[in-house]
Amino acid sequence: MHAEIVARLRCPVCREVLSELPGALGCRTGHRFDLARQGYVNLLAGRVPASPDTAEMVAARASVLGSGLFAPVANGLAAAAGPLHDGGLVLDIGAGTGYYLAAVLDRLPSYLGLAVDVSTPAVRRAARSHPRADAVAADTWHGLPLADDCADVLLNVFAPRNGAEFHRVLRSSGRLLVVTPRPDHLAGLEPPVAVDPAKAERLDATLGSWFHLEHSSEYVYEVSLSAADAHRLVAMGPSARHAPPAAFPPRLCATISVTLHHYSPRP
Ligand SMILES: C[S@@+](CC[C@H](N)C(=O)[O-])C[C@H]1O[C@@H](n2cnc3c(N)ncnc32)[C@H](O)[C@@H]1O
Ligand SMILES: [Zn+2]
Q: DSSP character for 48?
């Protein structure tokens, strides 16, 4: 792992500084966390996460993102993150495969990136998402294993948000970029992928006391999908856990519809 990133990690058990040992990270109290051969470190500290994305969901997501369907959103995030000077850290919390983190790092050549996700199949991929990125398995809801004020940019794309923790780890001059689905996101797909219409209000309630919303931009566009693309779009989302596989026509249209929210930390 990059030494500058290890320096910003904290022991998930006792919150002490971590340092790199042969094949592991360790704190001076004696807690040790093996570095996986795939290049990530598991800092879940034995906690069993509630609903991490499965290997099948992560593989479907990697394939959908690789096809470029969400490239306009990735470009929007990269433009919103930069340009910035004087290298620092981009965090992606709930990073999945690290696709959006990699797009942002391409735009910020002097920055390092850290992908955090509760799913080990996700961090395994995210660790390889960019030469300047590392990855850790950790749970947003159990306190991030990160130093205070360690990040300059925090990305959160379709993933859970912990306002207090995001505020603690983001520098006061940093920016928080959040992508959420709009109610018509993936309209045209059968079965519909459920999007909670109360999401915008909930987003504000979650983050509003910690962050100031500077502005939002919407990305709404039609995509033409093969039946296989449509299956993968459903398989990468939460409905894959319970919905039976649907039969899709050979070609269909769907709407990608998301909002990118730009936040700054409240003092
Ligand atoms: C819908 S996916 C989005 C992944 C990625 N941001 C993207 O858009 O491609 C949600 C991600 O959040 C992760 N996640 C869910 N609960 C989490 C938690 N409590 N802490 C950290 N990550 C979590 C999942 O494992 C999954 O990778
Ligand atoms: Zn420790």
A: -
